[in-house]
Design brief:
The protein contains six helices and eleven strands. Strand 6, helix 3 and strand 7 form a beta-alpha-beta unit. The radius of gyration is 20 Å and the shape is elongated. It is α/β, with parallel strands linked by helices. A six-stranded parallel beta sheet has the order 8-7-6-9-10-11. It has a five-stranded parallel beta sheet with strand order 2-1-3-4-5, with helices on one face.
Length: about 220
């Protein structure tokens, strides 16, 4: 049997697309059973499930977790290159929808901090739909504005952070009105009179079914 720990709309879609059962924490799983864990597997409610009690089953989780017993067959879907790239594109779509709920005009410049997969996907999508956008990074790359130069420049009206570590943005922050932090650790530095927004997981918020399909397609390679 296949089981899914359902803690969100995305995982509900995973359950439906896999034709699986919702894991309730009291099932006696056997060697042929499969369990799919959600993105917060390191912080699961231990009243429901202790990860180290799961043994001799196949587990799909976002990242490898030291709490999982070594007797399990473990696959980490968020460490798959194709899924990471596809999820970054869904993040960009979600951010586009989210930004359109904000008081942003078509000619307002949006600055994207970080040239990782998400930062690059956001930059490419916004550029394609003719939104003024700049991509900022510490390293030299295609279309990138170096952070050292950006620190001395006027900032865009909206700054989007995708970097996993805090980045000093430098001077001339008065031109920025809002910042969006989509990094998992919320590392944006606070500035007076600048609103910082934390939208959470954008694929979960805006494209949960498509995000679930990425996970299910990955599972389908092995099960």
């Amino acid at each position: 049997m296949k089981y899914v720990y359902v803690n969100s709309k995305r995982m509900e879609y995973v359950k439906e697309q896999l034709n699986a059962l919702a894991y309730q924490g009291n099932e006696s799983l056997t060697n042929n059973d499969v369990l799919v864990l959600p993105f917060i597997n390191a912080k699961l409610n231990k009243e429901l499930m202790n990860l180290n009690e799961l043994k001799n089953i196949t587990i799909f989780c976002p990242f490898f977790n030291a709490e999982l017993d070594g007797s399990n067959t473990i696959y980490a879907y968020m460490e798959d290159e194709q899924l990471i790239s596809d999820n970054a594109y869904l993040t960009a779509i979600g951010l586009f929808v989210y930004v359109n709920t904000l008081p942003i005009r078509k000619d307002d410049v949006i600055d994207v901090i970080g040239d990782g997969r998400c930062g690059r996907a956001i930059y490419e999508l916004f550029k394609k739909v003719k939104i003024p956008v700049r991509l900022i990074s510490r390293r030299t790359s295609k279309d990138v504005l170096l952070l050292s130069d950006y620190q001395q420049m006027n900032k865009g009206k909206l700054i989007v952070n995708t970097a996993i570590k805090n980045v000093s943005l430098g001077e001339h922050m008065e031109t920025c009105e809002s910042m969006i932090d989509i990094s998992s650790d919320h590392v944006m530095e606070a500035y007076e009179d600048i609103q910082v927004l934390y939208p959470g997981s954008l694929p979960e918020r805006y494209t949960p079914s498509a995000s679930a399909k990425l996970i299910c397609d990955y599972i389908g390679r092995y099960v």
